[in-house]
């Protein structure tokens, strides 16, 4: 009877008791509280060119996931503190070489962090918006998605956590030779690894092109590495091209 009486009082007063919403998690998991960690056909890209706007920070990344285990990234970045550019190349999944005029923070493998994370963010947003993948996209398609869970984008070295409520709007347009142009505006709140979400709203805009060629491109042996930093034993490499570096590392040519 006490429970019935309490319900009658609640109804008479015209209010309902507040219940705490379940805490969100930044760890991948099912709805309603687990983080979204997308995976699918958009992550099989080979090339990505993207301009990223994050408030006063603008970045341009050109990423190639080459045949074998090669990754090439070109970086241009402008912030209130600095403007700079760099190039970084992972050869055969094991050796980092780079060219940096010291205008950007970081060196060596650290330079791969931002472009690879941006690539994961783009692929994740496209996967959420168009889960059937690029192969099902035949014409320019509008994007309009919303979420109430944390969205996580990750690389082996760094992660992004986007808190809800978030919205994604824009468009994706097929181009020639397996490429797709995209223009995505993403509004979100900043989330932390502990699952907490800030009240402040942020906006990122991603504009560029993502490519799915029939075969992953092979970075040419003729690529000139003059002026690049190569952390190799003295005398172990003869010449100055990527082909010379591959020879020094014992990387076999493709069959």
How would you sum up this structure, described in words?
The protein is mainly beta. Helices cover 15% and strands 38% of the residues. It has helices at residues 2-13, 113-129, 242-249; strands spanning 47-54, 57-65, 71-78, 83-91, 95-100, 141-147, 151-154, 159-174, 179-191, 197-211, 229-230. Strands 1, 2, 3, 4, 5, 6, 7, 8, 9, 10 and 11 form an 11-stranded antiparallel sheet that branches. It is globular and about 60 Å long. The relative contact order is 0.17. Mean pLDDT is 90; it is low at 1-20.
Question: In summary, what is this structure?
Answer:
The chain has 255 residues and is mostly beta strands. 15% of the residues lie in helices and 38% in strands.
List the topology elements:
Elements: H1 2-13, E1 47-54, E2 57-65, E3 71-78, E4 83-91, E5 95-100, H2 113-129, E6 141-147, E7 151-154, E8 159-174, E9 179-191, E10 197-211, E11 229-230, H3 242-249
Structural class: mainly beta
**What proportion of the residues form beta strands (DSSP E)?**
35-45%
Mean of all residue-level pLDDT scores:
90
Low-confidence spans: 1-20
Number of helices: 3
Number of strands: 11
Helix content: 10-25%
Separation of the first and last Cα atoms: 81 Å
Q: Radius of gyration, rounded?
A: 23 Å
Sheet bearing the most strands, described? 11 strands, antiparallel
Q: What string, H for helix and E for strand, traces the elements in order?
A: HEEEEEHEEEEEEH
Overall 3D form? globular
């Amino acid at each position: 009877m006490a429970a019935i009486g309490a319900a009658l009082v609640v109804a008479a007063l015209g209010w309902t008791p507040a219940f705490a919403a379940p805490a969100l998690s930044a760890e991948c998991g099912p709805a309603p509280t687990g983080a979204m960690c997308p995976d699918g056909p958009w992550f099989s890209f080979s090339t990505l060119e993207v301009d990223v706007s994050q408030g006063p920070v603008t970045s341009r990344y050109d990423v190639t996931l080459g045949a074998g285990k090669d990754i090439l990234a070109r970086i241009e970045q402008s912030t209130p503190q600095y403007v700079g550019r760099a190039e970084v190349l992972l050869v055969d999944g094991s050796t980092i070489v780079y060219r940096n005029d010291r205008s950007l923070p970081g060196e060596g493998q650290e330079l791969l962090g931002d472009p690879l994370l941006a690539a994961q963010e783009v692929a994740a947003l496209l996967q959420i918006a168009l889960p059937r993948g690029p192969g099902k996209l035949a014409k320019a398609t509008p994007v309009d998605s919303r979420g109430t869970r944390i969205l996580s984008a990750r690389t082996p070295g760094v992660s992004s956590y986007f808190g809800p409520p978030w919205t994604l709007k824009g468009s994706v347009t097929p181009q020639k030779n397996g490429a797709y142009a995209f223009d995505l505006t993403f509004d979100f709140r900043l989330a932390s690894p502990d699952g907490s979400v800030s009240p402040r709203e942020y906006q990122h805009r991603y504009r560029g092109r993502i490519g799915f060629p029939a075969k992953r491109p092979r970075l040419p042996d003729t690529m000139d590495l003059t002026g690049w930093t190569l952390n190799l034993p003295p005398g172990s490499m003869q010449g100055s091209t990527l082909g010379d570096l591959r020879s020094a590392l014992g990387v076999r040519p493709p069959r």
